[in-house]
Automatic annotation (TrEMBL):
Record-level Gene Ontology MF annotations: DNA binding; DNA-binding transcription factor activity
Pfam families on file: FCD (PF07729), GntR (PF00392)
Keyword Transcription regulation on entry: yes
InterPro entries hit by this protein: GntR_C, TF_FadR/GntR_C, Tscrpt_reg_HTH_GntR, WH-like_DNA-bd_sf, WH_DNA-bd_sf
Keywords recorded for this protein, A-Z: DNA-binding, Transcription, Transcription regulation
Record PANTHER family: GLUCONATE OPERON TRANSCRIPTIONAL REPRESSOR (PTHR43537:SF24), TRANSCRIPTIONAL REGULATOR, GNTR FAMILY (PTHR43537)
Domain HTH gntR-type, first and last residues per copy: 21-91
Name of the protein: DNA-binding FadR family transcriptional regulator
PROSITE patterns, alphabetized: HTH_GNTR
Length: 244
């Protein structure tokens, strides 16, 4: 039950009402966020159409069009019957691979913008999480996401890494911050997908993740802030090395 409560919290942040201007496009974006950031894992079922439409404040026709688009793109499948619904595919489409030079040209000044925004949001999230009196469910949620990331296969690592960072934002106590972290993480993943996953870097990243979570669980905001700053600085250096 505790796990369900934590997933509901993430869903509250991602499945928020869409803007009135382009409900179809934003509905697709929200559903993709939930899938790509690991809130709804491969093989798991999305919330019901009735629930999703209400939470996103869109018509069921718009929601069905968005689900149809994701089905055609290979992200979800619909199943009939008593235990039917819309399920995330076990195998997700591979991200678009773009050469570093081409991506840097497409981004313009977007790399520094994304990295600065990420640092401001995620360092603050770690500090805020460490300053709260976390309940047993929140502590277990962080530990579970940490363990899942450390045990992830190479193909799943980026998604589980995203889920861990989103979990830190979730336990900060600010749904708005969780939403902002999810948005910037989607931008960051587009950058990370353009560079290789390095085993040594993953090992170092796992140690830094442990330091961040240890500081949060120890209720030590300065240590959580410093650990997250060091972790993000390493990722930023790697991205700049490959993309500039």
């Amino acid at each position: 039950m505790d796990g369900l409560l934590e997933e509901a919290r993430a869903g509250d942040a991602l499945f928020r009402p869409v803007r009135a201007g382009n409900p179809f496009e934003e509905t697709v974006e929200r559903l993709l966020q939930a899938i790509k950031l690991g809130v709804v894992a491969p093989g798991e079922r999305l919330p019901s159409e009735r629930d999703l439409a209400a939470r996103l404040s869109v018509s069921r026709v718009t929601l069905r069009e968005a689900i149809r688009a994701l089905t055609e793109a290979g992200y979800v499948e619909s199943r009939r019957g008593r235990y039917g619904g819309t399920f995330v595919n076990e195998r997700l489409p591979k991200p678009r691979r773009v050469g570093p030079r081409k991506l840097a040209k497409e981004l313009g000044g977007g790399l520094d913008d994304a990295l600065i925004l990420r640092s401001a949001l995620e360092v603050g999230a770690a500090e805020a999480a460490a300053a709260r009196d976390l309940g047993p469910a929140e502590r277990a949620h962080l530990e579970r996401c940490l363990a899942d990331t450390a045990a992830a296969k190479l193909a799943d690592y980026r998604r589980m890494d995203s889920r861990l960072h989103l979990a830190i934002a979730e336990v900060s106590g600010s749904p708005s911050l969780t939403t902002a972290v999810a948005d910037v993480r989607m931008r960051l993943n587009a950058l990370l997908d353009a560079i290789p996953l390095l085993e040594r870097n993953i090992e170092h990243s796992d140690k830094q993740h442990q330091a961040v979570i240890d500081a949060i669980l120890a209720a030590d905001p300065p240590a959580a802030r410093q650990a997250m700053q060091e972790h993000l600085a390493g990722t930023a250096a790697l991205l700049r090395a490959f993309l500039t």
